[in-house]
User: Fold these one by one.
Assistant:
Number 1:
Amino acid sequence: MLKKLAIIFVAVFGVLLAVPTFWPGAAPYFPKWIKPVPLGLDLKGGAQLLLEVDTSAMFKDKSNQLYDEVRSALIDRNKGVIRYSDLRNSDGVISFSVRESDDVSRAKGRLRGMLGNTVDIESSGDVIKLSYSDKQKEEMVQDALARSIEIVRRRIDALGTKEPSIQSQGGKYILVQLPGVDNPEHIKELIGQTAKMTFHLVNENVSPEQLAAGRAPSGTDFLPYMEMPWQTVPVYSRVEVSGESLKDSQADFDQNNMPVVTTVFDAAGARKFAKLTTEHVNERFAIVLDGKVLSAPNIREPIPGGRGQISGGFTLQGAKDLAVLLRSGALPAPLTVIEERTVGAGLGADTIASGTLGAAVGLLFIVLYMLMIYGAFGIIADVVLLVNLMMIVGMSALFGATMTLPGIAGIVLTLGMAVDANILPFERIRDEIRAGTPTLRAVDLGFHRSNKAVLDGELTNLICALILFQFGAGPIRGFAVTLSIGVMTTLFTCILLSKVLIDWYMGGKNKKIGYANRKVFM
């Protein structure tokens, strides 16, 4: 008896999960964690962006880092300086000449020990060449893609966009779907910024003539102001503090009630920032974002504690956007929008109406068929089918799955397979009755002997759904999710719930439910 009550409880719970979806007006009467199932882009309308990860820019940055690492390894005084000349970076290949031929093997060994198998090292005479291995390049691309997806997700979540879908596609692309967003321009601008922040000292020794002529001394870069690109600031190329050390950033107001961005560094960044501001009081340092100077304030006094403030004539929205960018982190590679598509809310509503109508018509025919063929047992099968439908929707809402048009197709397909899961035990019951088995015993045997076939069939469907989810993308995944949930609810309703309802209908008696020569259960 407890087992039957537990089955009924699970069924009722699953149905209640779906109530806010079918009747949104009832949502306030349910706990907050019971929500309507979110609708996808094709049902709700919104924007879709296809972003490309610019791997060429990423490899250029990586090769510059490799150049610096090679130079540091060669002039390492602790291990002994290796004299070299003509160190250069040409299309990602680092090359240099060793002045003393006896140092060639020593240089190769030192570089291999420092860089490991991430690089390919070749030598010809006294010339050594290094470049990242193909395996390392592939790992860089995959890492950049994964990090870019996470950063894009954090930026979009910070904007309050509901139920975004962000996933990789084609190895170096990111598909972003934003249901309910009808103007993606602001989001495009926000997620497309690399947001690489660095802190540099300003080179005060550069003359106005050099600045006007654009002749930057060695180790100095002329960078434009973000708000005034016609003005440039001479900054040392060396990065004093990296934006990677930022732990938090928020939009705020200064003493003059002007919007600013407050920053908080982690422990390592706080030490570097304190050292920078202590050793260079009354000097200027530049705050650089994506190669443009946000501001270049004067260091009035040491700033311990790792807390800073960025001002630059921001609007409140601009301060909020910059805080989001810094808080979410810098993209490992630039992102380019290569495709943009907008689905109107009206088209989404039409899709919902068409999908709902198709599902309702299919469900109606199934209900009528079961009623005509199996009579009273058919009514029980129809009740189980409706419970199954409610549970699929309810479990989708509980797990946070987004409902799409392919998802509706998956539900309709699941209901069709659920009918088969009911027909198998009913036919076994009929065979047992034809063989002269008492009705109650025939019901038990019918379910017992058909369960293996039902289980095998549904598990096969589940395996297919999992494969579609693993290797598919976009609409295919939406179909796979609802199909997977439908398999689990079908096994529960058709194997357990159906048997409980039939037992209650029988009432422990050998009711006359059919004849061996008839096709209808009465």
Number 2:
Amino acid sequence: MKMNHIIKFTAVLFGSAVLLSGCVEETFPEGGGATGGQISDSPFATEGVLTAMPTLLMSNATDYLDEHIEFGYMGMGAALDRLAGEVFPVAQNLPGGNQYYDRWQPWLYTGTSALDASKPPQQFFYNNYYAFIYTTNQAISIFSQNESMSQELGIAKAFRAMLYLDMARLYDPLPAKASGAEGCNAYVIPDNIKGLTVPIVREGMTTEELENNPRVPRDEMFEFILGDLNEAETLVAEYKRPADKMGMPNLAVVYGLKARAYLWLGGFTESYANVPTGEAAYRLAAEFARKAIDASGCSIMTEAQYLDPKTGFCKVNSSWMWALCQSTDTVINNLYSWTAHMALEAIWGYGNGAQPGISITSYERMDASDFRRKHIVNPDRDYAALAPYTNLTEEEFEGGEDAIAPLAPYAVCKFHPNGGEKRNYSVGNVTDIPLMRVEEMYLIEAEATAHYDEGTGRSLLASFMAHRAPNYLAPPTDLVEEIIFQKRIEFWGEGIILFDLKRLDMSVQNGYEGTNSPSGAQFTTDGRAPWWNYVLPLSAEQQNLALKGFNNPNTSNTYKSVQ
């Protein structure tokens, strides 16, 4: 079946909850769609419902911001990395470069009011997540009607767990400090919202229930998430994912999601009746990370795979456990695309103009033998050093041949267009995007173990780093911080690290003298940033009466950029 038929079918089935591209014109039965019973009896329709979940994650176009970053799940993932202060444009550090080519501006310039409850960036996250959840709920309702669809039901449950896990970690208001500087606002978390996550929307809820649906406490949310994952673990135990179905979560992915969930719970000391915290949760995080590694059959990316300019981070390889695999049907146009924004070589897109990069301090801290340095433009802008790992010619590297600007130091050439195609977006945008790699499981295992067994945690980190830097020696102190640093480097640009920084009360540190962070985004926080406690949109309060008086505090002007 062609993907565009699937997209069109699911758009009608799900009541046009989101806008989709690649739709063909065709007539559907009066009434707007099939019934759940008709769908469960039709292999064609069942496949459409199943495929809808990963398809929507990579092609969900909205108009909350009227911006080209509204291309689905990874559009939000990139916003998380900017919110964390880990990814930012470096183009402005050379003449002709412009920081504003980076279109995730609300999450870069967090000292403004852009993240207040009344502003569109709040809708971008909240409404997108619930649109995705709506789709999974519809799938769960349909697959629950037929015992022969147990694997499909498990897949839908895993998708839903991933989405709620993201939201729970993003909206949970953890203690954070304002700068206290003159002219900055205070940041105080009211007692009535402490430990709250988001409303749980289950399949089959009525309009009346949705209009009075409160935020649930952390323990209740994780009991729900782990319930979905426990059920998924059973249902997909025998599921053999076809090679062309990397968008579907299998047993290894379910274990990986459990590892992520328990890792988050390890950051809390509260005692709950039905979910573990602290050391007990960290032990489970390590256990399920190891199960994910073993079940996946995946291997850590080699240097050649990591740095390949034709396939590196644009095509599934032996380390990827879960991925969004795009086709010509799911690429909306030249600019509504991950590659157009994140690939320095996509000359048709924003990436070549903004040049997403890494901080000077992170680059300098990397071990000299670490091959992950090689796809970063070095401080001397040595084209010869980068040439084996990029598709750009030296002239393009210098801003010629219709490239937007010369590449600045510390720009990261990690994500490549499909096949290295630099100018034809209809080819270059058709890339794969990782959702989960086995390397994350190795680092979760190392960090979780380090919280209760430092010696073993240190050995696990050393074993992993042998795949990245042959001369690496871990510093003798603060092992957990070192593991997180290596995770920051490994997963730069993949939308993962903010949740670790938030859980561990780490700081944004881009406000130092000589920073390469853009003006307006030069912050140094005292522990976790207030804006990591994301705010619910005002529209949600207006539609759901139970949210009134229970929003996270606005974070605007709690810190000022040093420039």
Number 3:
Amino acid sequence: MLLDKIRKNGDIRRIPPEQYPELAQEIRDFLVEKVSVSGGHLASNLGVVELTMALHLVFNFERDKVIWDVGHQSYVHKILTGRKDAFDTLRQKGGISGFPKKCESRTDCFDTGHSANSVSAGLGMAYARDLTGKHYSVISVIGDGSSTGGMFFEALNNAGRLNSNFIIILNDNEMSISPNVSGLGVYLSSIRTAASYNELKDEVKRKLSRVPGLGEPMVSGISNVKEGIKKLLLPEMIFENFGVTYLGPVDGHNTQQLVRTLQDAKRLKKAVLVHVVTKKGKGYHWAELHPEQFHGIGPFDVMTGKPKGGSGAPSWTQVFADALISEAEQEPRITAITAAMADGTGLKAFAERFPDRFYDVGIAEEHAVTFAAGLASGGMIPVCAVYSTFLQRAYDQILEDVCLQKLHVVFAVDRAGIVGQDGSTHQGLFDTSFLAQMPGMTVIAPKNDWELKEALHYAVTECSGPVAVRYGRGEASRSFSCLRKPFNDRRAERLRPGSDATILAVGHMCGTGNAACRILKEQYGISCGLVNLRFISPLDQETLLACAEAGPVVTLEDNERTGGVGERCAAYLMEAGVPAKIRILAVPDRFVEHGSPSELYGELGLDAASVAAKTAEFVRSTAQEACGGTPEAERQE
């Protein structure tokens, strides 16, 4: 196999050009085989095989720099830089990441995971290169979906001033995760369909070169003719208006054509954008047919494209999606907003049912939030569904445009907490901290599927200001299904009694807390109560005080410790003058790498066994302290 000859960066240059198509097919077969087992981002990687090959044929990434926007399309780059044999560990704990990681390889120059930042980072690297007198190429690869992000245009505005080489590759596959709906997408489509431009340009060159005596001088001035043809046949050249030279469109599945174009781009002493047209999912029938389903997928059957495993129980996302449609059927003012994630956030069905009330704004979370604020100002009830990790990008807009004006915007915060294999850029571990600190923001964390439906109903029909409902990834919990306390009193819910201590749990962590209470009873002889906080903000201070006065309190959450529920509970008790004994169990203040959720919860000490052990130690140490003894923790020190 040709792929076996590639053991390290640069080995691809030993492959003869006539074998490039064969190598591309081997890479695609390899990707399908490995991702079908581990899960991951398949369609995006299948679409950039030839493009990545061309990059490695023209550049040397031991020296040159490539920044992959988002980074989920970097699998081929990893294969060509000697990490092929590690693909059995893809996205597994301790294995290689599904995104670029500087700690993995010198050929990964910038860690990415969110969109629209590659051109900004690349431009900074280009200026740093020039200032330090070094000589290497800088290439930013960005998709047409990511190009809807505001940072892309901010970076373009700056890039036109550069007087040295910087290459932007616009990977145009007409998709983000779902099909693109942006104005930029319409613009790129108009360029793609103007095929006569490239044909006419080449024909002009050929004919001029045949004119005796005058041919060569005329061909040397062809760039001026080229610019005229562009302006004649194409829409206004938006990129060149930024001062960035445009090359393309180029067939993204023709390796040799890509190589020639990249070599041309490399010679220019300015910022240049290479427009590459690719097909997402290319080479695998099911991914070509349903690229949105194979954007990020779990293990699947190669022959049928069907996912493997799963109990068939609805996910948190599906529960939310069904509940939102039910609410919208009763309330015509409800609108739904997504930032290019109609499938991921479950809003695709809403879009089909209420097309006039659904808005996909592209990969532009900041705009999505302020757009929602505008809708709320006009009397609508906007529901903005965003992954926790991506909502971070709109912090300023939530605070200034929504909370400051007390607008009734509902944030459906999907993928909150540990999400697993996508790793540090995608774990939803900060939303509690930054949302709960905002004045007037109500933050709700439902414990199970029923509570998610009720929380959404409460958020839509009974809240008057901003409200966020956070829920996790995967199958929705059905624990405590017989307990159905309404939300309108904004109170916590006692799930089980206990005389020795109380665990205050957030959202689906109630299930972990319940299992820990059973372990405490059976293995440690400790009677521990369990309370479902339900409201992160405002806290149910009365219930908190009652629990603290009764004995030791343990808070349990899947958010970082700083600014989380535990710290807020401890701060309130201190201010209230209650001599409470409180232990905070939360995610340490660090980034959490990839792995299965169960592995990560165990590593973080947030699985049931760890929670039980820590609670038992805390109960015993506080009892010894009350009797005048030395706490266990101090003796161990």
Number 4:
Amino acid sequence: MTTLDKEEYVRRHPRCMYESSLSTFMRLSQGDILRNVVISYHGVVQDTQNEAWDEEIAILKEALAPWQTEHAHIVLEYDIPRLGKRIDVVLLLRGLIFCLEFKINKREAMQQDVEQVMDYALDLTNFHELSQGHKIVPILVPTEVKDYSTRLLPLEYSELIYNPLITGKAHLKETIQRVLDKEQAQEVAPEVDLSRWIISPYKPTPTIVEAARRLYEHHTVEDITRHEADKVSTDATTNYILKVIEESKVYGQKSICFVTGVPGAGKTLVGLDVAVKQTYKDGEQANEEEGAVYLSGNGPLVAVLTEALARDNWAKCRMRGEKKNISDSRREVGKFIQIIHRYRDNMLAKVKNPIENGVLEIDPHRAIRQRNAGYGEVEHVAIFDEAQRTWTHEHLAQWLKTGGSYGNKTRIANFPMSEAEFLIWSLDQREDWAVIICLVGGGQEINTGEAGISEWIRALNESFTHWHVYISPKLTAPEYAEGKVSQMLQDRQNVVYSDCLHLAVNLRSFRAESLSAFVHHVLAIERDEARQLYAQIKRQGYPVLLTRDIAAARRWLRQHSVGSQRTGIIASSAAARLRPLAVDIRVSPDAVHWFLEDKDDTRSSCYLEDVATEFDVQGLELDYVCLMWDADFRYEGGHWSYYRFNGSTKWNPVKVEERKKYMLNAYRVLLTRARQGMVICVPEGNGRLTAEHFPEDATRLPQFYDGTYDYLKSLGMDDL
């Protein structure tokens, strides 16, 4: 192998910056290897980076000399799509996979560096097809460290991954040899094609935060999800929506798309993908004329995504030597990810007030009419995530009557529209063309005043008959608008049904695609189906365990979380009597800190102190969770019973059916937040009596909890 021109080299090495047999690596000069690494680098190579690669290659040549004649393979700077990072070195030697992370000139190992190399190993064993079933050995190499790891142990719950080893350059050769000796590893037969490893199918399922970061760097959903899996249709959905946008522009029409999907199927990913592609379709600069805005009423989701993208953008700019404040990055991200209420209030500021005769009109003294946009907002395309959660007419009217909207303190009496109708009206103010994308979750309304998807359909039928409707056939299912969508649309023109607008596969949990179905059957009290699906997800390696002991649950979470994997404790917002267990839903965590801070930060979810509710976690996820199940939602007499705590002495039954629906949906959200496994903790309650033989705590009697525990246990769930 010789130095190649950049275009040819990058074509041949799409996932790394160098790869070859070990014998070729040892035969080539250090300069030739370095030149091949440099030409495949995307961007301007800094002198410090050049020097680091040069030092790394020199160390490898010395350390790997004993095996230079063996059938082995080496890869430098292997790209990990899910993490958006690169492994410094992958060494395929005697059937083992060594992941090496170098820290040039460092004299000590840092915790974040150990977690980094651990993440690499986990990523390979979970998602890289040709790495599965092989022993993976993560090694951190702070080059000037004098000591080295002497204990060679596997992870507690995975025999295939070593605990990270730490060694300086002086003992790297010895460390590799000791691992080979422990494994009694034999040379690989020459006919085994080790070069196939680099093109292995890669099936990552990113967290929503990781995915948003990658999309903001102008990657596609295909780059960051399980694109080799035939059933995953996120790209087909995105492409279908982009086609609708283009046709709406060409023909000057108004269109609305309804996208459905099972929990965790990637609806938010699709929304972000469309927002990025439409906004940045011309390159690095945002398209102000035809851009899209991603809107959500989920405050924690918007806050976490905005802050994660802003931090990432700020860090990358600093690495490139660009002067940029974190506040500038936040403003940049905020252009296309916004809280829906602020978008709504910007349009409210343009309407005549007071409203006369129940008709909403633009006040020309409060708004400027633009040539193409009319009185509408600048964006042609608005993406509404969790569209089923927009407010009813009654809730919005009451909210505006008191002047309580986000940032808009103007009181508006007698407001005539629901939030869904007003959002369509807002885009309809554009005089050229507009597209709305509604991302719809079935059975996920969790708050008072949320209208559901039927309100969108009603508004379209009554006020916006000229809009073209593109709809998922699944929107006719019972969990959407109580199954009335087909009936509501039967007489409407310009309706197109497309399977491309439904996402059927759970991407949140890469271990248990059947999790959402399992949760559905648990909540529907369909025992046989729930038992079968529990056995299935257990075989898939997704643990769902039961316990009565929160201390045991915390221990399990800490034992199973390695690298940068995130854990957390979650509970219903009505779980009022968990305080004796140091779980207090009254103290709401800051979502940004809870989801983004490192494990050593007490505000982090991983500290297992602050508890998040369904309002904090909807749309987001953790790797492992403990769900605390309180007496608000009980299995009694063969059915679910619903209770609200009165704040002092007792639980009162909930009688309003709408409130029951919200409580059921809250547990549906909570039960689908874990990507890799969860513990359900149903407390034992307090059965002790006072000296007078009265209950010590009448609000936490064992019978409030035992029925729920027994029901879950009857489904075959394993105890922790």
